[in-house]
Input
Amino acid sequence: MAVSRHSYRTVIGYCLIPALAATTFGFDLGETSGFLAMREWLKDFGYYDQKLETYSMKTGDITCYNGVELGFIFIASLLAGYIGSALGRKKGLAICAVSSITGTAIQLIPHFWAMLLGRAIMGMAIGFSGVFAVSYWSEVAPVELRGLIVILYQLFINASQFLGACINEATYDFTSRWAYRAPLLVSWIFPLLLLMLVWIIPESPRTSPVALRCAAQTNIK
Output
């Protein structure tokens, strides 16, 4: 029984590392939605409304701001299956982390088109996170823990969304670009941790080299 409990702790520990990918989605929801009400962000990416005497953003630009990311989430979800089959879940999670770091970095540039490019890359990261994290868990976790572990995705999304909103609350009244840059930089922490730690977890048994060789031999036969 003690061995069983130890094994469960090991599995849960390994599965907490891919859970870091879920924070990509959560932080993005919590932070970027708040940017639309942040004066310094609107100053860089919006326009000055003479009638209201404040900075604002055009409806079409807001649509692009949200729509570009959603479109690339869809594209990444389609590509993730091919990437996972070719490279495995671990490398897929690493690609998710790199995409998140890159997308966030580009959004630090105070230019509308650069921001849209960053949003597009973040969309790729979010799409990859949903596929690679959940598929890794479902393939690694034992049956009796699978349901508990898979719902970690939603737990980490909600927790990081709340944290992102709290960070916005702490920085929104800054009178410089750090009002939105500070939250973006904080959101780097978790993809950086994922990129460093993903290499210590075992590959999914369904995409390990042995499993792939067995599948190839079966197809040949």
In short: The longest helix spans residues 2-35. The radius of gyration is 20 Å. The CA atoms of residues 20 and 194 lie 6 Å apart.
